[in-house]
Design a protein that fits this description.
The protein has 510 residues and is of the alpha/beta class. Among the domains are: 146 residues, 3-Layer(aba) Sandwich (Rossmann fold), CATH 3.40.50; 121 residues, Alpha-Beta Complex (Hect, E3 ligase catalytic domain fold), CATH 3.90.1750; 72 residues. It has 13 helices and 17 strands. The strands form 6 sheets. It has a 5-stranded mixed β-sheet, with helices on both faces. It has a 3-stranded mixed β-sheet with strand order 12-16-17. A 3-stranded antiparallel β-sheet has the order 13-14-15. Strand 4 and strand 5 form a beta hairpin. The longest helix has 52 residues. GO terms for molecular function: DNA binding; DNA strand exchange activity.
Length: 510
């Protein structure tokens, strides 16, 4: 086994980034030099560009911890231990347990932490504790600064609201807003449609779509997006901060995040001139009665395909339309008027998905996939071994270069020339080892996932009839990433005779 390098950006690196310095590459270069000094083999380099508050918000760190827990590495090279975890106590405990129980060393430019050494383990725990306190202090200071700036009328968001662009305030220290050259006229049109002409949000979106006006994403405006834009008080010269704070609660042993509307938010006069007058703002934000009822958190899910089925035409999630007198069965529909996809009965889609699961199981059991994966793993292990043997040979050649120089066989010029060529071969060999190991790990993970996926499918099919709708939805989300529905023809009334296709994307590598 070998070591991996983990590099992550931190908020304290913002000043260097502003000067055009690539902090991640700078850290990686330093850690590579450290690995060379200590003669540590490097198997992978992980770059984390996300600065999240928790491990779950940092996908690369999540992958790294999974590999550490699987005992895939001898050690990790990081600039500081606080780069591994600066979240809450649970996150830092998870990091500490992963490295301790897998006996994975942590190497920094200042110190090497050996989990087998009780003093190193205590010092590592203390370092994580101090970094957590420092992180909490930094967050608290930054939050107070944002609140102060908001109260003074400055804009503290990272992205300007639609119709505006961020500009430096006259004091040269804060940000303000100025009308966007192309978006501001569209903002005026939105208020004219929803305020003066009293268009509903969907009708206004259709009108703008027909005019070729698209959102920043390049897609047509959605009613919910339009509502959020015209309800933004920045358009009337106000700064709003803390309106939807993240609230964390523990549910079934897991931390659940929500963003309810707050009552203690900041609403102050802005440093920029209003674009919309108060009367027009209020008329545009009068209730339109065109939105479905929001999902209540105190009620169980009633759509077993919630968050799973996407429209093949527009790519948006399809939503449930409950049974009515004329249609006594639940439907899944694409709620955007411009889309050509028509609704489908949920029970019909359920039958199609269960059929797909049965077909998948049958194809796997009668295929040679497992034997093919086993053979591929053996072949790739041999490739890794060959590259590692070549690497050891090159390292011995490096030692011989110094012997030849000391014996006078090589001049300094020849030594430098041969040394540079050899170092390039060593780097190329290391890259080959890294690529071969990654390919091997992917194949191993694919085989394991396939072996686990089919029993889960069988278990789900056997218990399907006894599960509740929320349990079915949860089970499907463990097996399936998404379902893409294609359906352009309507059913005959009250009949299950749809012409449709589904593309199922399971959570297992192909």
């Amino acid at each position: 086994m070998s070591y991996f390098i983990y590099a992550r950006k931190s908020r304290k690196d913002a000043e260097l980034e502003a000067l055009g310095i690539d902090v991640l590459e700078r850290h990686i270069t330093t850690l590579l030099e450290l690995a060379k000094t200590l003669s540590l083999p490097i198997g992978a380099i992980y770059r984390e560009v996300v600065s999240g508050d928790s491990i779950d918000a940092r996908p690369v760190m999540t992958q790294v911890l999974s590999e550490v827990e699987a005992c895939m590495w001898d050690g990790a090279l990081v600039m500081d231990v606080d780069r591994l975890a600066r979240g809450d106590t649970i996150d830092q405990g998870r990091v500490q347990r992963a490295f301790f129980y897998s006996n994975t060393r942590i190497v920094t430019p200042n110190k090497t932490y050996d989990p087998a050494n009780e003093y190193d383990n205590e010092y590592f725990e203390f370092s994580l504790f101090m970094s957590r306190r420092e992180y909490a202090t930094i967050k608290r200071r930054m939050q107070r600064g944002r609140e102060r700036s908001s109260s003074d009328g400055y804009y503290v968001g990272n992205v300007a609201p639609y119709g505006w662009e961020r500009v430096i305030a006259p004091d040269g220290k804060h940000y303000s807003l100025a009308p966007h050259q192309t978006e501001a006229p569209v903002l005026d049109l939105m208020y004219d449609l929803c305020g003066n002409k009293q268009y509903g949000y969907q009708k206004a979106c259709t009108y703008m779509s027909n005019m070729g006006i698209l959102a920043r994403s390049g897609k047509p405006f959605a009613p919910s997006t339009l509502k959020g834009i015209i309800s933004n008080p920045a358009n009337i010269g106000k700064v709003r901060w803390g309106y939807r704070k993240t609230v964390r609660a523990v549910k079934d042993g897991r931390v659940v995040k929500s963003r309810p509307n707050a009552t203690d938010y900041i609403l102050a006069d802005a440093a920029w001139a209003p674009r919309i007058n108060i009367d027009l703002f209020e008329r545009a934000n009068q209730p339109k009665g065109c939105f479905s009822a929001p999902i209540r958190s105190d009620r169980p899910i009633q759509n077993l395909f919630a968050g799973l089925v996407r429209c093949s035409q527009c790519g948006r999630l399809m939503v449930r339309k409950k049974a009515q007198t004329k249609t006594p069965y639940d439907f899944l529909i694409c709620q955007y008027a411009e889309c050509s996809t028509v609704g489908i009965r949920i029970d019909e889609l359920e039958e199609a998905l269960l059929g797909w699961l049965k077909d998948y199981i049958a194809k796997y059991e009668f295929s040679d996939t497992h034997e093919e994966d086993t053979a591929a793993i053996a072949a790739k292990e041999l490739i890794v071994t060959n590259f590692e043997t070549e690497h050891q040979t090159l390292l011995k050649q490096r030692e011989s270069l110094f012997d030849f120089l000391e014996q006078g066989i090589y001049t300094k010029e020849i030594f430098i020339e041969r040394s540079n060529a050899l170092e390039q071969r060593i780097r190329d060999c290391m890259n080959n080892i890294t690529a071969a190991r990654e390919d091997l790990y992917v194949t191993i993970a694919r085989q394991a996932n396939r072996k686990n996926f089919v029993p889960k499918c069988k278990n789900l099919l056997s218990e399907w009839g006894s599960l509740t709708v929320p349990e079915k939805n949860s089970a499907l989300k463990q097996l399936i990433d998404r379902i893409v529905l294609t359906k352009t023809k309507r059913n005959k009334k009250n009949q299950k005779n749809s012409e449709f296709t589904i593309d199922v994307y399971p959570k297992v590598p192909k």
